[in-house]
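We were asked to recover a plausible sequence for a given structure. The inputs and outputs are reproduced exactly as logged, with field labels preserved.

PROBLEM: sequence recovery
POSITIONS: 478
GIVEN STRUCTURE:
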């Protein structure tokens, strides 16, 4: 099957092609046609199945570009996921100039408020901050036609149910609602019957065929020997890219310091860090700037990073589901991966709980022998000295041909997006299709130029007026 069969706008198809998606995944095959018909859907599907694009694609297709008020709202449990989903939507909607905005807590409200004054098609956010904006009147929901509740089970686990319900009650009744969840508990089903209309139920079963190729092993070890076992395991496993999960942020801090000292390229992420730092660490890890990410469960959900070869549970997760989410960071997009759990002898009960949750016994391995370590040492030492291979970002090809231009005039000079489109599309060799997202602020504006035509537009705009005014123009910093 091909994406063309969904009868999508050529602009959406072009973006999908440039993202390298040749064939829709199972969840996409099932969800896209239903949402395009504006029917509600209740989808049981895990991250890694391509579920983001299964709602992002029809959303980008359905939203009306002309409408200034936001038309779609996506709720996610974490800030990282909000940013990621927003990026996926921006990538898919690039040629249709779909403007997405991520709203999440611990980031300046005022800046978000300003951004909300711009034309925005899709809002992606965490429930608390979204509700805050609606209640303060900074987010107008009167034109919201589409609602996506992503990772609904996690949203409930994190205690967001009340906020999610409050948001739903404030949205127009005539809308299409999509609910995605890895598990369909009674509570989720109740939520769907309460707020959805004749939802089409779609289950992507985790059959062998769909199951990622992940090898699971566990080691039984006393607390005092965990660190030395971890070292031995990293030597024999010699991972390219590895997440090590710990139970608390204190444990993360300790471990990252120790590993750092020992020469590992390691960094950390946990909920006690500033949001900017969290994003930066995830970005650097995504780019392959270091090999070992030490994390609490904040990094377990939804985070989509290719080529993570190993997940190590340095501490047994206390919740059975966490094991699945942590492990799901590896073996993505058809690749294989390995999950290694270190359990102390007293944690037998938790381990059995996890095994019954995942439906199989995790085989117990024995500590690497001296010979194995000696044999692996040289290759490990070489890799420790090497910079990890840079990972390509998903939207790279899509973004390669885009130049963002800065102009020193905006709302105060009464300049609107149409003024830029009108002026730039008149340049010889440029059409409206070469113009991407336009952002007009009070005193400055940003215009994306697509298809590698940035320098041509830049050259011309140096001596072309916009609404009778000659503006300063240069390539935007970011
Ligand atoms: P998700 O389940 O949304 O977290 O997506 C998992 C990964 O699959 C992401 O890296 C997507 O970019 C990628 N992906 C989504 N749809 C497709 C597709 N049709 N073909 C190839 N990769 C895809």
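RECOVERED SEQUENCE:
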């Amino acid at each position: 099957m091909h994406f063309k069969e969904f009868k999508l706008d050529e602009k959406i198809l072009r973006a999908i092609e440039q993202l390298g998606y040749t064939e829709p995944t199972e969840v996409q095959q099932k969800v896209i046609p239903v949402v395009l018909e504006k029917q509600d859907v209740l989808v049981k599907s895990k991250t890694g199945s391509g579920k983001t694009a299964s709602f992002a694609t029809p959303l980008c297709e359905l939203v009306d570009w002309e409408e200034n008020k936001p038309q779609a709202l996506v709720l996610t449990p974490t800030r990282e996921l909000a940013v990621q989903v927003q990026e996926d939507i921006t990538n898919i909607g690039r040629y249709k100039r779909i403007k997405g905005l991520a709203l999440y807590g611990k980031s300046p409200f005022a800046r978000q408020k300003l951004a909300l004054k711009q034309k925005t098609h899709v809002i992606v956010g965490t429930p608390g901050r979204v509700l805050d904006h609606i209640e303060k009147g900074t987010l107008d929901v009167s034109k919201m036609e589409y609602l996506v509740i992503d990772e609904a089970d996690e949203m409930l686990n994190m205690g967001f149910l009340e906020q999610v319900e409050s948001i739903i009650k404030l949205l127009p009744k005539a809308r299409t609602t999509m609910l995605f969840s890895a598990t369909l508990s009674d509570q989720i089903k109740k939520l769907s019957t309460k707020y959805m209309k004749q939802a089409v139920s779609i289950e992507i079963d985790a059959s062998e065929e769909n199951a990622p190729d992940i090898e699971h092993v566990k080691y039984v070890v006393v607390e005092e020997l965990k660190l030395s076992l971890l070292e031995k395991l990293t030597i024999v496993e010699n991972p390219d890219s590895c997440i090590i999960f710990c139970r608390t942020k204190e444990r993360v801090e300790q471990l990252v310091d120790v590993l750092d000292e020992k020469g590992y390229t390691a960094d950390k992420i946990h909920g006690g860090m500033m949001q900017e730092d969290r994003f930066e660490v995830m970005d650097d890890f995504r780019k392959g700037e270091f090999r070992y990410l030490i994390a609490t469960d904040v990094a377990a959900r939804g985070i989509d990073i290719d080529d993570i070869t190993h997940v190590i549970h340095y501490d047994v997760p206390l919740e059975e589901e966490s094991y699945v989410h942590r492990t799901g960071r590896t073996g993505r997009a058809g690749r294989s991966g390995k999950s290694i759990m270190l359990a102390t002898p007293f944690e037998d009960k938790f381990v059995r709980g996890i095994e019954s949750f995942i439906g199989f016994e995790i085989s117990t391995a024995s500590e690497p022998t001296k010979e194995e370590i000696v044999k692996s040492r040289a290759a490990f030492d070489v890799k420790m000295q090497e910079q990890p291979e840079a990972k390509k970002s998903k939207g790279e090809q899509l973004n390669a041909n885009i130049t963002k231009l800065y102009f020193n005039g905006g709302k105060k000079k009464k300049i609107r997006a149409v003024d830029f489109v009108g002026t730039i599309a008149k340049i010889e060799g440029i059409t409206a299709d070469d113009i991407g997202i336009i952002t007009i602020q009070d005193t400055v504006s940003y215009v994306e130029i697509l298809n590698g035509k940035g320098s041509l537009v830049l050259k011309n705009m140096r001596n072309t007026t916009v609404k009778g005014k000659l503006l300063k123009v240069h390539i935007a910093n970011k």
